[in-house]
Amino acid sequence: MNTKVCKFGGTSLANAEQFKKVRAIIEADPSRRVIVLSAPGKRNDNDQKITDLLLVCQELADQGLEIEPVFNRIRERFIEIVEELKISIDIIELLNETERLIIDTPIKAFVASRGEYLSAKVFAAWIDAEFIEPAETIVFRNEEHICPSTYPKLSKRIGETGLYVVPGFYGADENGLIKIFPRGGSDITGAITARAVEADVYENWTDVSGFLMADPRIVNNPESIKELTYKELRELSYMGATVLHDEAIFPVRDVGIPIEIKNTNKPSARGTRIVSSREPSERIVTGIAGLKNFVMFQIEKTLMNKMVGFGRNVLQIFESRNISYDHTPTGIDTMSVVVRADNLGDKLDLVIDDINRTIEPDRIDIVSNLAIIATVGVGMVHHVGTAGKLFTALADEGINIRIIDQGSSEINIIVGVNNKDYEKTINAIYRTFVK
Ligand code: ADP
Ligand code: ASP
Ligand code: MG
Questions:
Q1: 30 C-alpha vs ligand 3 centroid, how far in Å?
Q2: 96 and 214, same structural domain?
Q3: Ligand 2 within 6 A of CB of 183
Q4: What three-state secondary structure class fits 265?
Q5: 0.85 cut: is pTM over it?
Q6: I need a labelling partner for 63 at 20 to 30 A (CA). Which of 26, 104, 168, 325 fits?
Q7: Cross-strand pairs, 36
């Protein structure tokens, strides 16, 4: 029998109305039999995600403070869903037990995982499916990696037939201690599960009709992308197009399971299919994504290019301070290192001191409040004039380009601009290549 693994995100499960849409999607196709769920998300822009409310409870409990007022907001949301849908589950007892555990064990990963746990428990009871406990099947080796034993464990639990519900976002280490993926990590659970059951497709259901050519919060009504390679997706999601968590690609890519991004609110829309390779289409650019708040260290030293080990010495400084870097544009006598302000934290002065001491540069400039924007497309490098067209578009808008990096990956052109020009830059690139 065909098997589709379907992951539904927070907005797809925000209330009883959304639960009904999810159920209708599952019932429309018998091969949709392995369901991975997020915790209920925001019902509107002013609302809060269950996960965020849980994290507040954790902080309060950790300080020995009352969690009741905040926990009651979580309580009300689950009770409303269960009552409206007349689900036969003792939700009051389940919530009371959860509250007790949060107070007794205010460990962040455990508390954060309870949104997915409750969501999946309730949904499994409603559609009469088997609940799969990730703490017994998804084994974390460390904060970043799962153990390979996860795959046989999951596939043993999930049968060739039947209907299963798996909570996203968490698992446990070898000692049974609950661990979580980064925020948005239910996408990763979905990908791992798809691989474990050798799914025909991994459907990722969200609140947009597929991967769009740009962030819909920046570009008005962007076009959706029909087909995207894993590599293009990786570039776009790493650079901030957060539709799918960037780490969710690896488990399925390695075994060639296609991903489909679909809209829970509009199931008939075509969505986006992510595949290993595709013919370049008549469109040169596939998508545009970006992130704000980078810091660039511009290091100048005459004859730097002749000094053996110069680059390594510079990067060593960042390594020894435990700071990862994103880009290293270089010139003849200059080398720049671009890092995320979040990763740099309060280590700016320390790094400058290290550079002055070990590199003895002629000059060092710090450029902060930088935004990095990636324009991505498989056929791009073979198209004469793509970069020129992009730079002209930005020049016409009076945007000052601080960094240009036509990356070694061949499928993107990266520009760095001031944070304040971020939205303007994305719109200018979009207009040039799409409209
Ligand atoms: P879920 O709760 O289903 O996991 P997310 O909020 O994580 O959903 O991801 C979907 C959101 O990603 C969209 O609502 C949209 O605001 C945002 N987004 C950012 N960039 C893009 C893009 N290029 N295409 C589509 N959505 C995007
Ligand atoms: N609920 C978690 C979060 O809000 C995980 C997820 O939704 O993917 O980040
Ligand atoms: Mg998400």
A1: 25
A2: yes
A3: yes
A4: coil
A5: yes
A6: 168
A7: 7, 166
